[in-house]
Every structure is written in C-alpha cells, then in structure tokens.
Amino acid sequence: MDKNTETYKELPEKILRLQLDWIKAADAKVPPVFAINIAMLGVISALVNNFEQWKILTAIFVSLFLISQLVSLFSVVFAMYPRLNGPKGSNIFFGGISNKDEDMYLQEMRSISEEELRSDFLKQIHVNAKIAATKYYHVKIAFMWMLISAPFWLVSIFLLYT
To answer: Would you list the domain boundaries of the chain?
Structure first.
C-alpha cells in the first residue's frame, strides 16, 4: 500500500472506530442477559417458602439453578468491567492523555510525526481488540450459563409449585 494515499493515512482511524464499535456491540448484549437473569431469580425468590417442606429434588434443582445463575451474573460483571489499560504514553488514549499535564500534551501533539501518531493508533487498535475479545468471551459465557440455568429454573418452578 502506498504510504502517501489517503487510504493509508486514514486506515488506522477507521480500524480503531471498528474496534470501538465491536466493544459497544458487546456492551449492548449485556443488559438483556442481566435482565433475564434477574427476572429468573425474581420468579424463584417469589416462590421460595418454607425450606423445611422442600424435598431433596427441589433443593437440588434450585441449587443447580442458583449456581448456574451466579456463573452467568459473574460473567456479566466481568463483561462490563472497565478495562483502562491503554498504550503507555499514548496521545490518543484518554488514560495516557490524562496522565500528562495540559502543556505537555499540547507540546507532544504539536511535535508528533505522522508515523508516530499512526503507531499510537495501531497500538490502541491492538489494545481495543484484546478488550473486545475479552468482553465477547464473557458475554458468551454469561449467555451460555443463562441458557444452562433455564431447564433447572423450569423444573424448580414446577417443584416449588407442587
């Protein structure tokens, strides 16, 4: 690719925007999973009554449901946990910028070469790709454990009603 073309110059910024969009998409998947988990827990908690009258089968299914829900909820928390590790000394990552005083940042931005700025973008792209991969991993685990909990939830509801 010719380094003098607009495509070459704009490509890192476009890739960074794409990475940020993937992070936003992962974050958007969390609230529905969280809401469904909380609703399922709410139904069970509304049905829980005198523990002494529970049969062993009821205790087993409710326990399996609660364990799978806890795994799902912890994964939701890990998916939403802010990841603030950007490239050291970055002039585009808010953490790197905020660690510099205003004058230092302005001086660095005025004197930065195009290639240094490109390198900063590429480093940030790499960090954001890792963040997106981590978020999607935790969203996948949360969703999977929510689905695993569903049969235990349904059987628990049936056993708690009878």
So the answer is: 10-45+54-161
